[in-house]
Every structure is written in structure tokens, then in C-alpha cells.
Design brief:
Elements (H helix, E strand, L loop, with lengths): L3 E4 L4 H17 L3 E7 L5 H15 L8 E7 L2 H12 L3 E5 L7 H4 L2 H9 L4 E4 L11 E6 L9 H11 L2 E8 L4 H20 L4 E7 L4 H11 L4 E5 L14 H8 L4 E4 L10
Parallel strand pairs: 1-2, 1-4, 2-3, 4-5, 6-7, 6-9, 7-8, 9-10
Antiparallel strand pairs: 5-10
Helix pairs in contact: 3-5
Length: 271
């Protein structure tokens, strides 16, 4: 079906996620599937009534696409992943703060579980993010791992969709000349790819020996980034056992939206 899944729980964060999903869906001409995951004890009737009321309120924003919903029961991350697989969805969009009984589900580890369970990329956005701002700058960190380049096609698609500029951030995690040469080579390959698809881009290399997450976020803050695209397996060898892995740290600390892609989720090409 190639639609977009959006997790919804009546919170401000998930309502903002719906608005962002509508913008994406209109640009891609993809239908939207809103997914509410209820607890076993919840009465479904008032949930349906409220979702339908809210959907009617945003119907005027839809430009040739459909907004449908489904109510599922179980673990949030598993149910979102199952719906995405059933729908052959393009991506999942979630708000990282929830309320109405779901507060513990969207914060921290459960957001990461959604990413690890999902068969498609996951866009996670904090409820305090400025959703009215144009998506002008996309940060794409590149390190010495083999998988690091696999996120580039989806990042390029996002950039072409919004007319964004991609900021390639070469992360030097070691003083080793071989590692630095590897990162430089990967960045050069990505630059060639982006040139091929006429995607605007700039490049910067930084010392990231201390902490990949902090280095990436400091750069994103400095350029006022609108999105960071990461691989969930990025730099396994350099993660801190005290802080968790790179993706978990990014989700916990970033005030910028994060598009998380697992290595096997690499089918989307720039177009």
C-alpha cells in the first residue's frame, strides 16, 4: 500500500506527529494509517468517536490522500510494526512524549523498541519541536562502519521532497590515518551520489573520539538542523556501555527529529 503509519495516543506530541505526517503524505501522495494501541481494559467506542472527531478536524488539510485509522491491542512497538508490515508502509512517525495512559510507552526505551521492531524507517519527533519551521537542513552523520552509507538514499529522498540541504558530517572516531581515510572515502562516495540526484549538500569533518552523540548533536544545534538521519547500528564498537548505544542516546538527548533506519531498511531511493 506504501502508506505512512502514525502512532497516536491523544497526546500533543502524537497530534503534532499527525500534522507532520499529513505534510509528508501530501508531498508523496501516500495515504495515512493512524494507529491507536489500546489497553485491554479500554472501551473502544469513545476512542473511535474521539479519533473520528479529530480526523474530521484535519480533513481539509488532505490533498488527494486518505486518512484512515485502526485500533489495535497489545504492546505499542509490536503493534505499530505489525501494522507497518501489513500495509507495506513507507515509514512510521511517532511523537516521543505521550499522555493519556501512554506516557511510559513513548518515552525512552519504548521509542527505541518501536525502531528495533519496525520493518520500516521510523521518524521520531519531540512534542516541543517547532513543526511550523521548514525542513531546511538535514544532518547525515557518516562514520567508519560499512552500513553508515545505507541511510543516504532515504535522506536524499527527504531532501528532494522538501528542497532541503544535506549536511554530511564526517565523524572521525580515531586518530588512525586508515580510519580517517575510510571516513573520507565514504563521504566522497556519498557526495557523488547526491550530485547524481541533484541534492544540495555541504560537508564537514569533526573529531568524534569522545562521544558520537554529543558531537553530532552539537553540530546539529550549531546549524539549527531540522532532521538527523541515523543508522541504528552506527559505530557499535564505539558505544558507551554506560550510556547505551548511539541510536538510544540520540533518541534520549536530541531536540531535533530523528529518522532512524536499520541496515536492512534500504529499499527507498532518491527520486
Amino acid at each position: 500500500m506504501n502508506n505512512i503509519i502514525v502512532g497516536f495516543d491523544f497526546s500533543t506530541g502524537s497530534a503534532n506527529a499527525v500534522d507532520l505526517t499529513i505534510d509528508l503524505a501530501n508531498r508523496w501522495q501516500s495515504d495515512i494509517r493512524l494507529v491507536y494501541v489500546k489497553e485491554k481494559s479500554e472501551d473502544e467506542a469513545p476512542i473511535r468517536a474521539e479519533i473520528e472527531r479529530r480526523n474530521a478536524g484535519v480533513a481539509h488539510l488532505l490533498k488527494g490522500v486518505k486518512l484512515e485509522y485502526v485500533i489495535r491491542e497489545g504492546k505499542v512497538s509490536e503493534q505499530l510494526a505489525a501494522q507497518a508490515e501489513e500495509d507495506e508502509a513507507l515509514m512510521i512517525v511517532v511523537g516521543t512524549h505521550g499522555m493519556s495512559g501512554f506516557e511510559s510507552n513513548w518515552i525512552g526505551k519504548n521509542t527505541y523498541r518501536t525502531i528495533t521492531d519496525s520493518p520500516v524507517p521510523v521518524l521520531s519527533v519531540r512534542e516541543d519541536f517547532n513543526f511550523k519551521k521548514d525542513l531546511e537542513r538535514i544532518v547525515v552523520p557518516l562514520d567508519s562502519t560499512t552500513d553508515t552509507r545505507q541511510k543516504v538514499p532515504f535522506a536524499a529522498r527527504m531532501a528532494k521532497t522538501f528542497g532541503s540541504e544535506i549536511h554530511l558530517l564526517g565523524l572521525n572516531t580515531s586518530d588512525s590515518k586508515d580510519i580517517k581515510a575510510l571516513v573520507k572515502g565514504y563521504v566522497k562516495q556519498v557526495e557523488t551520489f547526491l550530485d547524481k540526484y541533484n541534492v544540495k549538500h555541504v560537508t564537514e569533518f569533526v573529531d568524534a573520539r569522545k562521544n558520537l552523540t554529543v558531537t553530532t548533536l552539537e553540530y546539529a544545534d550549531r546549524i539549527n538542523a531540522d532532521l538527523i538521519v541515523i543508522m541504528t547500528e552506527q559505530e557499535k564498537a564505539f558505544t558507551s556501555w554506560l550510556m547505551g548505544n548511539y541510536a538510544q542516546q540520540m533518541l534520549h538527548l536530541s531536540k531535533h527529529p530523528i529518522l532512524s533506519i536499520r541496515p536492512e531498511q534500504v529499499s527507498s531511493q532518491a527520486r
